[in-house]
Specification:
It is built from 15 helices and 7 strands. It is an alpha/beta fold. The strands form 2 sheets. Strands 2-3-5-4 form a 4-stranded mixed β-sheet, with helices on both faces. Strands 1-7-6 form a 3-stranded antiparallel β-sheet, with helices on one face. The chain is globular, with a radius of gyration of 19 Å.
Length: 360
């Protein structure tokens, strides 16, 4: 079995980079408790918008709409926010038209708009990047923005393109919920942020959570056998642990928490993917420990904004996710690291027995 196919490796979601760009805006803020607050766009009337671009078959757009719709309906009748899903072909689509829409939804203005039109897309990966898949809730416009180029939806086997669409929608959900104050029904953005902001949680929660969600949606709606897919990524996660030992790299969730950690691995010629495969199984294990998927799909994210604000008042930044983890899973993240390390030493057959029905 190959470690990872081309589309799996290169379509890494880039929404963290978007948040990092925003982080620089608030560096000069005097108080870590200062927030900017915004109303939601079209509350109760949110829509999924998928523009038609040349080179993208109508069949592909229909399949993507179906997968995204099945994904947002896990949480309600409408998307979490007005969401633009942009699918384009890097050689056949009118890239100026694509860029105009992309930069508008992203809220780029002035000099930043000019740069976006010429270089942007994919949060700096460019509109001509063939293997591109990314998503985020754009705080500047309060809109969801998803994107994918032909490397991720053209000739995709095992409905992997649908899985990618579901994965990316969950990123829109994740990044909005970490800023959403439900009782106040408004978006709150901390003015002061760090260069490597983990406000929504470590990389393995963000990427593993999105993958686990997508596998559940795909299994629930019969796109592909759920157990088969989960076993495949479990085997790949274990294989990465073995490869890591040969390179002197300890493959654990703790070491896959920040982009800077992953960058150091890449510098050694080691391509990290455990944040996806191991992260997805971490979610499955949390579901097993708590008896429900509510924690990993909803409750964890619902509590982040409020707890982050509470702890900022106590002088601690990027602490809300840790407190939400403890509240919703009954343990600290460090305690979970210990449990999960033990779990990964179980036999594959024993591990597979913890799985429940998709979305249960």
């Amino acid at each position: 079995m190959n470690y990872c196919g081309l589309r799996r490796c290169v379509s890494r979601t880039l929404f963290i980079a978007s948040i990092a760009c925003l982080a620089s805006e608030g560096v000069g803020a005097q108080n870590i408790n200062d927030y900017d607050y915004f109303k939601r766009v079209a509350p109760g009337k949110e829509r999924l918008i998928i523009p038609a671009y040349r080179g993208v078959p109508a069949k592909t757009r229909r399949l993507m709409k179906r997968a995204i719709t099945q994904s947002y309906r896990v949480f309600g009748r409408r998307p979490i926010a007005n969401t633009y899903a942009l699918y384009w072909h890097t050689k056949k689509s009118n890239l100026t038209k694509v860029a105009t829409k992309w930069c508008s939804v992203a809220g780029r203005k002035g000099a930043d708009l000019k740069r976006c039109m010429s270089e942007g897309g994919g949060w700096d990966d460019g509109f001509k990047t063939v293997n591109l898949a990314a998503a985020v809730f754009e705080t500047a416009t309060r809109l969801g923005l998803m994107e994918s180029t032909e490397g991720n939806w053209q000739d995709s086997g095992n409905n992997f393109h649908a899985k990618t669409a579901s994965h990316e929608y969950f990123h829109v959900y994740q990044t909005m919920m970490q800023h959403y104050f439900e009782k106040e029904d408004r978006i709150g953005i901390p003015q002061k942020r760090t260069r490597e902001d983990v406000h929504g949680g470590p990389v393995w929660i963000i990427e593993g959570g999105a993958d686990y969600f997508a596998y559940n949606v795909m299994g629930k709606h019969k796109w592909r056998d759920y157990d088969e897919w989960m076993e495949e990524i479990l085997i790949e996660a274990k294989a990465e642990i073995v490869r890591g030992k040969k390179k002197g790299i300890k493959v654990t969730l703790r070491n896959y928490a920040k982009d800077s950690q992953l960058d150091k691995m890449k510098a050694k010629g080691f391509f990290p993917h455990f944040q996806y495969d191991g992260g997805a199984w971490a979610m499955a294990y949390l579901r097993y420990l708590t008896g429900t998927n509510k924690g990993v799909f909803t409750n964890y994210y619902k509590d982040i904004a409020e707890l982050e604000r509470t702890w900022r008042k106590k002088g601690k930044m990027n602490y809300g996710w840790q407190m939400s983890f403890k509240k919703n899973f009954g343990m600290t993240v460090n305690q979970f690291y210990t449990k999960f390390n033990r779990f990964m030493k179980w036999s594959t057959s024993r591990q597979m027995k913890i799985l429940a029905k998709p979305l249960s």
